[in-house]
Amino acid sequence: MTTITFLGAARTVTGSKYLLEHNGTKILIDAGLFQGLKELRERNWQDLPVAAKDIEAIVLTHAHLDHCGYLPRLVSQGFRGRVFCTAGTKDLCGLVLPDSGHIQEEDAEQANRHGYSRHAPALPLYTEQDAHRALTLLQPAGYDRPLPVADNIEVEFINAGHLLGSSYARIRTTSETILFGGDLGRFERPVLPDPTMVDRADFLLVESTYGNRVHDDDDDGEKLARVIRETADRGGRVVIPAFAIGRTEELLYWIRRLEMGRRIPVLPVYVDSPMATHALEHYRARLNELDPELRPEDNDELAPHGPSAHEPYAKRRAQAEHERELCAFCTTKFKTVASAQESKELTASKKPAIIISASGMATGGRVLHHLKATLPDPRNTTLLVGFQAEGTRGRRLVDGEKTVRIHGVDVPVNAHVDKIDSMSAHADSREILRWLRGFSEPPKRTFLVHGEPTAMQALDATIKQELGWSSHMPQWKERIELKP
């Protein structure tokens, strides 16, 4: 018998965790943190219905915290198995997990210092040391290479085009094939490749984050260009809360492209996030996994024009590849901000600039200092470029609230607030349907996950009406037997 228990991302966009049980063997696909609303975050403290030591293996689809951030908690509770993922996911987990552990410890220390925890003493969900221990368990694997993870269970990673290293996990047991969709990427977008089409699966889990929406049409970066031009004309600063991994790379790509096309003034562009800076290094090191436009070998400008050009061409090719690898995401006045002191100096400055800083939903990190400094001034712009979950500060800004609370202070929102949906790394309803139509035959059952109820219900109706498939919206902790 094979069952799936939906321990996260069930009628919510966060906390992805699916317990697969097959003939007594237990493996976990994704180990995500719940984020956003307090009632969701409190689930992180609840024990799973299976002891960590009884989980034989864990499979990660990608390195966003809502898919991997619970892993150190499981390690602290006794998980000692292997964690299977792609090489890119391993690289990025090396950034996000220790950082998350550090934040957990900082939050506990702050709660103890100011006495606002119900617990005495307040404890971190897990520590930075737990995170480093978790990293030692990661077992990287290439795409499209099936490998065993437990008795009679194998996994194959398929590129999902959502993030460096992101994948669908195709799990094969003795009786069925289950495709755990992770997060589904976009079609015809820069930086990342298109999501790989899949021919068939007996059972399918697919995300529904944008199941009731269609992203803005690609405008060749015009909205971003307009926001930058108008803010520069006012003498203001553009502050962009951006996910440190993935979104920062796309923003730099577009700003660089707009500069080269002389569609925006050349402004200083700061990446004020140590994690984003390190992530850029991993993206540069894996250009072969990204969109062909970023790959050095696809640069035809240096093609030789005759036999005598071979030797100079080889030298020029080597130099061009080196420079392009280093500067695939560089703008004209690009600077990474390393130290906390540099970040403070940047925050204190009033000079026009573009500042990209984490976190993407403005829930923490250095971007809060920039927002606190710039939101009261109408010359400035706060630009949101990703999904803003319910209960986050970014969502409140998008919803038009006139004040937001930052570091215990109510900050007036006089700055312009704008949003670009087209830059999302999640497929919208049309793209999800386009991907689903790649199946040669319908799965026996499709489970909708990773979406808020309204979006999920809309996609459920679309799948049933347009594809005629059997689909289901699992509840949190619902356990379903996969019947032949």
Structural summary, described in words:
The structure is a single chain. This protein is an alpha/beta fold and 484 residues long. It folds into 2 domains: 2-213 and 425-481, Metallo-beta-lactamase, Chain A, CATH 3.60.15; 222-419, Rossmann fold, CATH 3.40.50. It has helices spanning 38-41, 65-68, 71-76, 87-114, 128-135, 222-233, 247-260, 274-285, 310-327, 340-348, 367-374, 393-398, 429-436, 453-467; strands at residues 2-6, 17-22, 25-31, 57-59, 82-86, 138-141, 147-150, 153-159, 167-172, 177-180, 203-207, 238-241, 269-272, 334-336, 354-357, 381-384, 403-406, 409-412, 416-419, 445-449, 471-472, 479-481. The protein has a 7-stranded mixed beta sheet with strand order 6-5-4-3-2-1-22. It has a 7-stranded mixed beta sheet with strand order 7-8-9-10-11-20-21, covered by helices on one side. A 6-stranded parallel beta sheet has the order 14-13-15-12-16-19. The longest helix is centred in the N-terminal third of the chain and has 28 residues, at 87-114. The termini are close together. Mean pLDDT is 91; it is low at 297-311 and 319-326.
